[in-house]
Protein: Glycosyltransferase RgtA/B/C/D-like domain-containing protein
Organism: Mesorhizobium tamadayense
Amino acid sequence: MAVEDLARAKSGIRLTVIAVATVPLLFLLSGLVIRYAAFASVSPDPSLAVYARAFCKWDCTWYVDISEQGYERFPIPGHSNVGRWGFFPLYPMLVAAVRTILPFSTIAIASVASLAFGYLSCLVAWPLMDKNMRAYVLYCAFLLSGPFSFYFATFLTEPLFVLVTSCLFLALKRSSYVAAGLSCALLSATRVVGVLAVFAIIIRMFEEHRAKGGSVIGFPRWLLGRPDLIIAILISPAGLFAYILYLYVTVGDGFAFVHVQRAFGRVTGNPLLFLWEGLSYHPRPGWQPTAPQWSALTAIVALALSAVLAVRRQFGAALFCAMALILPLTSNLASMVRYVVGLAPLTMLTAVLLSASKPTFVVVLIVFVATCYFMTVAWLGGYLALV
């Protein structure tokens, strides 16, 4: 009987592993089919080469240029006076490295890499959602075959950002602080808000200290007595610092990624004012919300979800997400939908909440897959709220 129980347990584990690996693969394939159908419905040329290029819009073109040409040293005759420095280097560097080995175009390599990162993000999310299969299915559907899955099918930083963020919080869950620090360093080289994850690392350290009976006052002393924790904190901003050093040496301005934002129309202001202006922007008659209204509503919902994370005592994730939303909100609402989709703790929380009941789970799953087609058409058509 003991042998039979052991065999049954091993069989159950095997089936779980197969399911965890297969679910995102199925959604990855279905997403490819749906997005291609949407592309073919609006494109006179349905070839795969045109398909990959058609999805490369807005920031994607900047990353292609960085991967192929690097960053500018002004002046460059015949080029735009808007520098590429506002776009961080890790993902373009990875694509450029692969391109030196494989004889494919930049956008083809990046598209495959983004899909692979999306798939891996799902696998990492499995233990983060406490092995909740319904929530896992929804999360995989959202990333790979959902309304915003086109972000994970082209050359944008969201696929890599979601994957590394997931790895960071998995490392924190397992108290692997050096691994979390390395993940934060990679995040800070992917997008500027990635460095903010260091606060989630420190909060997790504090929670562990308190769980062991330590006092609030004694936390700094406990921290100094753990070299691994100090190393984790110190290496967390390494990606950002390396980029600052590179810009200082090559351009003469280590903070060129901040200063160039003026050329993109980003001016520092009050986040609440930007939200109000977005919500109230409706110059045309009719009921359909405008792009600024969608962006403002998305930001408000995301901030509310950050509060829910805090209520569920996920303080590190809550603070990271709130700060990663507020920082871009200090300039304007541009790209807000994409930024929210790229915050893995928020999308995982949404999947968990929507999977609470089986009927809701089924309805949401159908909505995710069904809206993939229409949102892809909107992306290909250049709808501003999706920029």
About this structure: The chain has a mean pLDDT of 92.
